[in-house]
Amino acid sequence: MKVAVVGATGLVGEVMLKVLEERSFPVSELIPVASERSVGKLISYKSKDYKVVGLQDAIKMKPNIALFSAGGDTSLKWAPKFAEAGITVIDNSSAWRMDHSKQLVVPEINADKLTANDKIIANPNCSTIQMVVALAPLHKKYKIKRIVVSTYQSITGTGVKAVRQLENEVAGIKGEMAYHYPIYQNAIPHCDVFEENGYTKEEMKLVRETQKILDDRTIAITATAVRIPTAGGHSEAVNVEFESDFDISDVRKILNESEGVVVQDNIDVNTYPMPIYANGKDDVFVGRIRRDGSQPNTLNMWIVSDNLRKGAATNTIQIAEYLLKNNLI
Length: 329
Description:
This protein is α/β, with parallel strands linked by helices. The protein is 33% helix and 23% strand. The protein has ten helices and 13 strands. Strands 9-8-10-13-12-11 form a six-stranded mixed beta sheet. The chain has a five-stranded parallel beta sheet with strand order 2-1-5-6-7, with helices on both faces. Strands 3-4 form a two-stranded antiparallel sheet.
């Protein structure tokens, strides 16, 4: 199994390499791929050094699968070239997510839609993944009518430049800015660029991607995405209205039995999900589970997950594992 990691020198690419090793994915040959300025650099994987190659050379090396995390423009240009060469691409950018011909996959929910003909597979946005992992099993039982979500997102979702900005600000050093404003001791209600409707792309990803993954365009969704100075993961306050009523004990039971979900919810001992707990883990953590007393059939919950792992690298590799297990590559 020859595996190319496109964007191997980036934050998500580095985590992909770590997760491939941790999960013992059967890599017979690793092909680290990055932009021209990184070609020739050495990447360490399983105590062995590999030279970074360019995109064209990577295609010539004929990997079985290519894990992309190199940005939307790179994916739009190069993913089809890899696919034309018979290479299965799992793309972590937003380039293909809303393409009707491409599957948008969270393995716990809809991996069964994949076939051998899917040569470009889209990995959802990090904030979408953690929310739908928690909500999909509840949607099956109670049918979601409306979601109101506010996110509190880690700087790591922006990338290395944002991490450096926070580190510089903590140290009192002036440096390159990833955001329009300081992020240290601040909260910025601006994730990605604004669209014409006044919402950011990040907020609209939560709307559009959730409807596509759950295969239900009738779900009404509204979102506010906020960047905060944490590095361990994304947090979400989710208010979800169902078509039918529920019992809180049943909600807990469903979540406890759901793949990839860990319930952390005991307010008597101050147990609830936080990025400091989620950091470095692959699960989606759910807590503060309580009924919304202001209207019928409505639930409040707090969802936290490591955005670089389940929100990006781990979900990508879980898709690859599914493809391999079912002989689709």
